[in-house]
Design goal:
alpha+beta; 14 strands; eight-stranded mixed β-sheet
C-alpha cells in the first residue's frame, strides 16, 4: 500500500524513525477523513481542526491543505480506492527529538504521514448497541479537546464494548456525566429537542458533530449543548456521529423504543447531512 510521508509518496515499510515522539509518547494529532469515489468529505474542516490541535500542542509544522489534498487524491488512485468508500488518515507528530518528555521549540523535526485504503461500511443491522464504559474521559485534559494520538482510554472502552457484544461504549467524564462514545459523538432526542454534550464536558469537537448541529439549526430544531446525565441514555432516542459512519441510530440496553417523531428527526438529519456532504465533495472537486 502506498503512503505519503513528509511530502513523498512511498511504499517501503521502514519509514518512521525509532525516536519519533508520536511512537514513543503519543505526541501528535490525527484526522480520519471519509472519501467517496476518491474525493474527501469536509476536508477543509478536518484541516482546520488539525491546525488548531497542532497549535494547541505547540507542534511547529506547516499544514499545507493543497499539498495534503493532492496527497490524498494521489493515494486514492495508487491504492485503487477511487470507487466507493475509502478512508484517509492524516497523522502529524512532533517528530524526532531529544530523549525525555521536555521539548524545545525548533529542536524537533515533525513527521507527517498520510495513509489511505478502501473502506467497507458495516452492514446496517439496526441501531448500534452501546454500553456505558468503566473507562472515563477527563474533560479537563488537553487530550479531550483535540484529536491527539493519546487514545488508550478510547481503545480500552472500545474493547470493553466488543467483549460485551456491543458496537460502542459511552464514556463518562469525571463528574459521571456523558462525554462521548469511544469512537463517536453522542446525540439525544428529547421531544422536539436535540441534545449533545459540549466540549467542556469532554466531548470531542467532531467535524460531523458540527455539521449536524448546523443542519439541525437550519431545520429549526431546538439545540441543547448541555450536560447529559447517564440516566438520560435510557430515556431518550440516541444516535452517534463520526466521519466514517455519518449518523447512526443507537440504543442502550433497557432503553424504550424511540418515538416515531424521534425516528423522523434522525431521518431528516441523515438526509440533510448526506446533502451537505455531497455539496462539500463537489466543491472540493471543483477547487482541485
Amino acid at each position: 500500500m502506498a503512503f505519503w510521508l513528509n511530502g513523498e509518496i512511498r511504499e517501503d515499510r521502514a519509514a518512521i524513525h525509532i525516536a519519533d515522539r508520536g511512537f514513543l509518547l503519543g505526541d501528535g494529532v490525527f484526522e480520519t477523513v471519509l472519501l467517496m469515489d476518491g474525493r474527501p468529505a469536509f476536508f477543509s474542516a478536518h484541516i482546520r481542526r488539525m491546525r488548531a490541535g497542532a497549535a494547541a500542542l505547540g507542534i511547529e509544522a506547516e499544514i499545507d491543505e493543497r499539498a495534503l489534498a493532492d496527497a490524498v487524491t494521489t493515494l486514492a488512485a495508487r491504492n485503487e480506492a477511487t470507487k466507493g468508500s475509502a478512508w484517509a488518515r492524516l497523522t502529524l507528530t512532533r517528530g524526532v527529538g531529544p530523549r525525555g518528555l521536555a521539548f524545545v521549540k525548533g529542536e524537533c523535526s515533525p513527521t507527517f504521514l498520510v495513509t489511505l485504503n478502501r473502506y467497507a461500511a458495516p452492514l446496517d443491522h439496526g441501531p448500534a448497541q452501546v454500553i456505558v464504559s468503566k473507562y472515563g474521559r477527563n474533560e479537563h485534559s488537553i487530550t479531550a479537546r483535540w484529536k491527539t494520538l493519546n487514545y488508550l482510554d478510547n481503545v480500552m472502552a472500545k474493547e470493553e464494548a466488543t467483549v460485551a457484544g456491543a458496537d460502542d461504549a459511552i464514556m463518562l467524564n469525571s463528574a459521571r456525566r456523558v462525554a462521548c462514545a469511544s469512537t463517536s459523538n453522542v446525540f439525544l432526542i428529547r421531544g422536539d429537542s436535540l441534545k449533545t454534550p459540549p466540549p467542556e464536558e469532554g466531548a470531542m469537537p467532531g467535524v460531523v458533530r458540527a455539521i449536524v448541529l448546523e443542519e439541525a439549526e437550519k431545520a429549526g430544531i431546538e439545540i441543547l449543548a448541555a450536560p447529559v446525565e447517564s440516566a438520560e441514555l435510557v430515556a431518550s432516542a440516541l444516535f452517534l456521529t463520526n466521519s466514517l459512519i455519518g449518523l447512526r441510530p443507537a440504543a442502550k440496553a433497557g432503553a424504550r423504543a424511540p418515538a416515531e417523531s424521534a425516528l423522523a428527526m434522525i431521518g431528516e438529519l441523515k438526509s440533510r447531512y448526506k446533502a451537505a456532504m455531497m455539496a462539500d465533495i463537489e466543491a472540493f472537486e471543483a477547487a482541485h
